TrEMBL record:
<feature type="domain" description="NAD-dependent epimerase/dehydratase">
    <location>
        <begin position="30"/>
        <end position="286"/>
    </location>
</feature>
<dbReference type="Pfam" id="PF01370">
    <property type="entry name" value="Epimerase"/>
</dbReference>
<dbReference type="InterPro" id="IPR001509">
    <property type="entry name" value="Epimerase_deHydtase"/>
</dbReference>
<protein>
    <submittedName>
        <fullName>NAD-dependent epimerase</fullName>
    </submittedName>
</protein>
<feature type="region of interest" description="Disordered">
    <location>
        <begin position="1"/>
        <end position="21"/>
    </location>
</feature>
<dbReference type="InterPro" id="IPR050177">
    <property type="entry name" value="Lipid_A_modif_metabolic_enz"/>
</dbReference>
<dbReference type="InterPro" id="IPR036291">
    <property type="entry name" value="NAD(P)-bd_dom_sf"/>
</dbReference>
């Protein structure tokens, strides 16, 4: 379906209300790892809509199934396998012009705390395999690797308005996940420095959308702790609002500030970064500009689910590494890529509410 992307990067909508995209792929082949994950599925859809041919690799280790329905399209091939398997990556990347390295162990705050070693070890192997295969395939026609990093590289930034480059001027992240994502960026730059493999680094901020399921894992946490934070904050809040949990539990004092970004916007930003010649050997913060405190988010979610029902908050102890403010500077992505993420937070919440209701996750929690 052809469409137009304006200079601002915002997409017009077709008659059915679906965002239109400018077809730029012309069948060019792209390998995406982590393609069955939450954000990965949106990236695969965006690529297909733009005319690319996509090979999606995922081992289904987190959800045991695709987070969302995978695209059913003649230009999409789904492969179940380990993205740390260099022989498999090399095979699947044959003829690829681009490689989006998105495979990683990722989850909510409890997931990241409980699986700290596995996250560090597994994600390191994934990053190393992506860089090594990228180097080999670059000699054979692969143009670039686009690495999916994280906002967590700014975990210990002392201020607001994080700008690209600040992650190397502040203390390294305290969490295993944040530290390893910073290492991903070092892999990217080292592969360029030593072997001339071009890269682009993208840092998504607080991805929101339909499709995030509970991730079963072995945990040392109590059942109550796991129930308190089972996923990312918006689906977690939606589940508990649907159960009418009142008083509503919030970690910490509730004044932690976050921006939120729809997964479709993030997928568009990732693909724009992949495509852009100006993005070679650059890094980008990909984030919406809307934000709120965690207490304000709790109130918003409650009111969307239970309008007119009295509401109160009970504060629970925060995790030691909880970031107080996560608010990036997004001017570089706007100026270089024409990327602006403008989905309203209310629309994001409503979509997650519909998803949770449809899948029955709240009742099962």
């Amino acid at each position: 379906m052809d469409g137009v992307t304006g200079a601002s990067g915002r997409k017009q909508a077709d008659e059915q209300g679906r965002p239109a995209v400018r077809r730029t792929g012309d069948g060019v082949k792209v390998l995406v790892t982590g393609a069955a994950g939450f954000l990965g599925g949106y990236i695969a859809e965006e690529l297909i809509d733009r005319g690319y041919t996509v090979v999606g690799l995922d081992n289904l280790s987190k959800y045991r199934q695709p987070a969302r329905g995978l695209p059913e399209h003649e230009r999409f091939t789904s492969v179940v396998g380990d993205a740390a398997d260099k022989d498999l990556l090399y095979e699947l990347s044959e003829g690829c012009a681009h490689f989006i390295a998105g495979a990683a162990l990722i989850g909510g705050v409890r997931y990241m705390k409980d699986l700290a070693y596995d996250i560090l070890s597994t994600n390191n192997r994934l990053a190393g395999a992506a860089a090594e295969v990228g180097v080999s395939r670059h000699r054979e026609g692969l143009r670039k690797v686009t690495y999916v990093s994280s906002s967590m590289v700014y975990e210990r930034h002392p201020g607001v308005g994080f700008r690209e480059g600040d992650e190397r001027e502040t203390a390294p992240p305290a969490t295993a996940y944040g530290f390893q994502k910073l290492a991903v960026e070092y892999y990217a730059r080292a592969a360029w420095s030593q072997y001339g493999l071009p890269y682009t680094i993208v840092r998504p901020f607080n991805c929101v959308g339909a499709g995030e399921r509970h991730a079963p894992h072995t945990s040392t946490s109590s059942e109550e702790q796991q129930r308190l934070v089972r996923g990312h904050v918006i689906p977690d809040f939606v589940e508990r609002a649907l159960r009418r949990e009142n008083p509503f539990r919030v970690l910490g004092d509730g004044r932690q500030f976050r921006t939120f970004t729809h997964a479709r916007d993030l997928a568009r930003g990732v693909v724009l970064a992949m495509e852009s010649e100006a993005a070679w050997n650059e890094d980008f913060n990909l984030s919406g500009n809307q934000g709120c405190t965690i207490s304000e988010l709790a109130r918003l979610v409650w009111d969307r689910v239970n309008p007119g029902v009295p509401f109160s908050i009970r504060h629970e102890p925060a995790f030691p590494d909880d970031v107080r403010v996560r608010r990036p500077d997004t001017r570089k992505a706007a100026e270089v890529l024409g990327f602006v993420a403008d989905t309203p937070i209310e629309a994001m919440v409503d979509e997650v509410v519909a998803w949770v209701r449809e899948t029955g996750l709240a009742a099962a929690a």
